[in-house]
Description:
alpha/beta
Amino acid sequence: MGTGILRPSERRLMGGEALNGSRYERSRAHHHRARRSLAGGVATAFRAPQLPWPIAFARGAGSHLTDIDGNTYIDYTLGFGPMLLGHAPAAVMRAVRAQLDFGIGYGASHRAEAELAEAICRTVPCAERAIFSNSGSEAVAAALRIARAATGRTKVVKFHGHFHGWLDPLSIGVPGSELPDDPASAGQDPMASASIEVLPWNDVAALRAAHLDEVAAVIMEPVAVNGGCVLPEPGYLEEVRAATAAAGALLIFDEVITGYRLGLGGAQGHFGVVPDLAVLGKALGAGFPISAVVGRADVMEEVATWRVRHAGTTNANPIAAAAAIASIHELERRADEIYPHIAALGDELAGMLREEMTAAGLPLVVNQLGAMGYAFWSDAPISDLASARRTDTEAYRRFAAALLDGGVHVISRGLLYVSTEHSDGDLLETRAAIARAAESLRAAMASQGAAVP
Ligand code: PMP
């Protein structure tokens, strides 16, 4: 399977070797307390691998987080992606506070839901209609249902190493899995994935050999961010677009990460390839739980006529909708400034990681596009799942822990995000923290008798 997630018992053992455990005493106590009631002590498995143990936070503002021990960090985790505008962005906070005075949910129509749909249709190229859910996983499920209803077909193609949420059907061939049909988790229903075919990414021949005329939809991360921020090869997206159109299969871009991050129009705007449907989440809600399926009006007609049942008690609730509208307005208003800024920040962060680690003689590869990236402990380039699987994830976790000691918070498995709020000063501090982390890792390796360059 190889999801890269350690069992808590394994992780606690690793925590015993923490570089600077005393700095995180309250987090440790919190984690011990949490484990007695919250299964595993974390609310999502992806938070479990952090060393020395999962850190508990008390406050987020702009580019910074403060933990319950009072340590402050420059944050490149961004809530696992949503905080593109930084933590607690003023425009979003204002909109949410204003809405709170008018109620939290009505179980009925309200102005914000249509206003949000309009904002999305204005900004995302394929969006002629929208529906809303609460999480990316849910919206992916809705997109598949719509595609199957619209085509009258059942089969769905996904790509090896792409991640589309935690629900059963698409939880095979996820990042880190050795074989395309490896399930991500114990307890999955194998039948739920019986109609899913997993193809290699960036492989035109495999695509041509697939019987797309029997396929309802081809779903992909248009940049394989979860599998290592592996870009589509030039012409590949165009190839998939043409092949699906010719075969009457729908093309679904899962833009949960790339949406509003690679530009107002997401990956489809960036690459100029327009899918039939797209899934949005993360940055859409600036941290509030909201996701969307958007796409061609004729396809979305399946929902409009109620043939496809789409439900959800808190769908497009006024709080999350207000946050999303404020977020899109902010991104639209400042698009000319924001997108070049975060792309430059992403370039700079990736560049300094490469430079400082090379200077220290430590192997780090960074794949990055704009405000998102993925770093690997590796001395060979990462261009596909096979090369990503050969990297040293354990060493990267230790690097992440060393950065934490130096006041920089990153995702332990390698994903990197920058926000509009990161400043040149943050990057200067980050460069110094990277250099210190590299030095402490070299020292640790030397004391363990490892060959250090
Ligand atoms: N699709 C992609 C590309 C994602 O990265 C994620 C989450 N990381 C999801 C879907 C699932 O979203 P959620 O966690 O909101 O269910």
